[in-house]
Amino acid sequence: MKSLTIHEAAEELDISVDTIRRWAKKGLVKAGRNENNYRTFDRNELERVKNKYLGISTPHPFVIHKTKEAPGHSVIELFAGCGGLALGFENAGLEDALLVEIDKHACATLRKNRPAWSVVEGDVRDCNREDIFSKFKGKVDVVAGGFPCQTFSYAGKSQGFGDPRGTLFFEFLECIRAVQPKIVIGENVRGLLRHDEGRTFQTMIHHLQSAGYRVAFKLLKAQYFDVPQKRERLILMGIRNDLDIPHLFPVEKNYTISIGEALKKVPKSKGQGYPPRKKEIMEMVPAGGCWRDLPLDIQKEYMKKSFYLGGGKTGMARRMSWDEPSLTLTTAPAQKQTERCHPDETRPFTVREYARIQTFPDSWIFEGSLSQQYKQIGNAVPVNLGYFVGQSLVHMLDGKFDVDGFHIVTSLEVIEDQEAQMEMEI
Hints:
Elements: E1 4-5, H1 6-13, H2 17-26, E2 32-33, E3 39-41, H3 43-53, E4 74-78, H4 84-91, E5 95-101, H5 104-113, E6 119-121, H6 124-129, E7 142-145, H7 168-179, E8 183-188, H8 199-210, E9 213-221, E10 229-230, E11 232-240, E12 247-250, H9 259-262, H10 276-282, H11 296-303, E13 326-327, H12 351-357, H13 370-379, H14 383-397, E14 406-409, E15 413-415, E16 421-425
Parallel strand pairs: 4-5, 4-7, 5-6, 7-8, 10-13
Antiparallel strand pairs: 1-3, 2-3, 8-11, 9-11, 9-16, 12-14, 15-16
Helix pairs in contact: 1-2, 4-14
């Protein structure tokens, strides 16, 4: 099927080129790239956009997915945080054999919500030194972990293995060697793909291969997995060499869910506020707008030296819009560089709104201070994203590979463009 240029796509949708360019930048329409690096658009994708954004179909409702099946496959999860991935896996039918987390507030959250879960509060390095994992050898199907990602983030110092936190991948690897699970799942930020020109990631792949695993990876966009948030997670999957199991990844949905759908009847809860002057300035920003929508003198006052720097800086003084997914939630709701203002009220999202956007159920209680609760939610894997990854694991372990909504990775593939999404089998 012939791809359309941006001008042809705009004509097809009967909208302006500027509008479709803005939608592509926001991730509301998927775009490819031709040999000249110009955006191209698939007709099926344009049909999806017609249905979603041009009023032909009704909005997709917000739902937290949960299967009734419990196939009995078990998981050890390291760096478990407040339970986003663990709950997603549970909702997919997987059983948690052990969770390891160093943050005491996150551990309190896990124990509060799932007293039956086996939670080890402490450093994963101590678990390896004390040989805790070896008793699970041959008894656990999956080892998963979101090894700390700050050192691989574009927003961080990007020191990678030069930072002690970066070496926690090797603790993850030691657990894998001790347990010998059938499948390994690592999750991280997109920046890991290109850290040190890709060498950091290739080093990880090499070590997993040396441990006896075939490795594949895919960058998943949460907004296409029933998460009302534009959040990307790199999913690294290893399968033990002696198993005849292909790599199975969930396929993106052909729609997104807006925060308007997600935040219907959200329970009231505590939340941070803005200082008086910041609130006055944010009052001037329209829904979907940012600092560029302020009067010039106010722009200069708010942005200070950043006003004269390059880049779009569209996260600054940013107000969300009801009809789109939220931008990626951070560990604090009112950081100047990554503002996430409520669409109508001039305030950050509350804790329960944060949790809804991350697809936690309203019954999930977060322990610790207000800032600790925000931190836990902001660091979490969205529960629904965890569910779809968990379903991939269940299908793989059950030997069900030809399943609608899931994709077998069989060769080197680059999807869309290099800055949008990648998947690979090595």
